[in-house]
Amino acid sequence: MKTDRRQFLKxxxxxxxxxxxxxxxxxxxxxxxxxxxxAKAKGSEEPMPSFAKKSPMHLGTVTxxxxxxxxxxxxxxxxxxxxxxxxxxxxxxxxxxxxxxGKSERAEVKKRFADSPVKLxxxxxxxxxxxxxxxxxxKDIAATKEYIVLARDVGATxxxxxxxxxxxxxxxxxxxxxIGHSLRELGEFAAGHGLKIFMEVHGSGTSLVPNARxxxxxxxxxxxxxxxxxxxxxxxxxxxxxxxxxxxxxIFTVHMRDLFLENYPFRKLLNGLVESGFRGxxxxxxxxxxxxxxxxxxxxxxxxxxxxxx
Length: 310
Known about the structure:
2 domains; 8 strands; TIM Barrel; globular; 8-stranded parallel β-barrel; single chain; alpha/beta
């Protein structure tokens, strides 16, 4: 069958029109798909929903030991990423906040924290006041006062100190009184700079909560309080509830070990703190890790879960 020229041109025109329509449809579909992809990408930038409720307390970390090798920028970065709100800078660690810092260096430390979401809560000293050597005692008190001035200059709210045992050659009550009177002197000095003294419940014999309570009674100063240390000795004697109640109302800060430990009542501690009106910082005092931020995320989740907030 022969096809004349006019019919051929008509058929060709229809075919080209069909191809054009198909191409337009394909381009429109492709554009629509790209639009969906863009919308999806834009949606992924929006914050994911959070099922965590806010705690009335605050979570932070001691640089001992998970953050012992972090400088200040790294410390702020990691804490911010893990949603840790504050830090206690333990002496001798890489952060470098020591009494040897000059005026401008102290101002720089203060500014770094002030410009960040992370609060510099405390400087963790290792000064002790149980020694029977009175010359050494005076030296440690004087050194602590220098540390208090450093804390003021860098914008911290206080200084952590610690008793560290009971000398065998001295009556227990006398040592507890000496520690308490030393803390009172430091509390008076700290008050003049708008700071507090956090006495860590620490050391052989001095970590027994009834002894820690006696030290605070001897100190008898509103700027001197306890740093609850989550020791196994908290369960000794009359038990956890009795011991917690001995210090309830005088707890200024809290140190916590690994929250997965089943031999310590962390849920009871956290709920007791909230019920007592504590609104301060709970500090993670945990081992170093090769994946620290991930560990900190898990730590925060468990801290919230124990409070019934996640």
